[in-house]
Amino acid sequence: xxxxxxxxxxxxxxxxxxxxxxxxxxxxxxxxxxxxxxxxxxxxxxxxxxxxxxxxxxxxxxxxxxxxxxxxxxxxxxxxxxxxxxxxxxxxxxxxxxxxxxxxxxxxxxxxxxxxxxxxxxxxxxxxxxxxxxxxxxxxxxxxxxxxxxxxxxxxxxxxxxxxxxxxxxxxxxxxxxxxxxxxxxxxxxxxxxxxxxxxxxxxxxxxxxxxxxxxxxxxxxxxxxxxxxxxxxxxxxxxxxx
Length: 243
Known about the structure:
70% of the residues lie in helices and 2% in strands. The protein has 243 residues and is an all-alpha fold.
């Protein structure tokens, strides 16, 4: 049975929020995996002695978070981890100006420097070949901003995949909207061909170190790449008194 007593100074949880917490604990206790069938709303309602409406709301919350897959009259199933919920949070933070493109770059830097280091150690030969192909395509797209931006994003996602840490891919994919915004802002100040070529060269340096299995060199090259991006973004916002 759900305990509705509030013993803290915080705002008391609603019944549906308590049901959410209970269901998350149950998934963990049972060691459920993606695709595993979960309890029905009726089962949970009877077991916890709470209304079907509260349980239904809890299931909707977990579906929004990407934890459960519900609908079409089928039994709920545990959902594979996906970036949807994180993407909504990051997008909301940018929309309400609690985070800026510079914050995005600084956050990414911490994740991706380590990801590059791991990629140098664990990337498969196929992944290395894909990275070489992507940098060739990025170089060929020097005068095509959209195509170049797509290559940029693909390179970073591929490096995250090559790190063989699923959290790197999850977070980076969730940040795609924020990343696209930061790239657009960065391109404001990259007006010369020489500056664009420097960005391409920065990506090429990372890939070169990763393909050479030089973990320390890959981390250093990725750090240099982000320092270049942050400095460029700072120049773009400084006239407005920001950054």
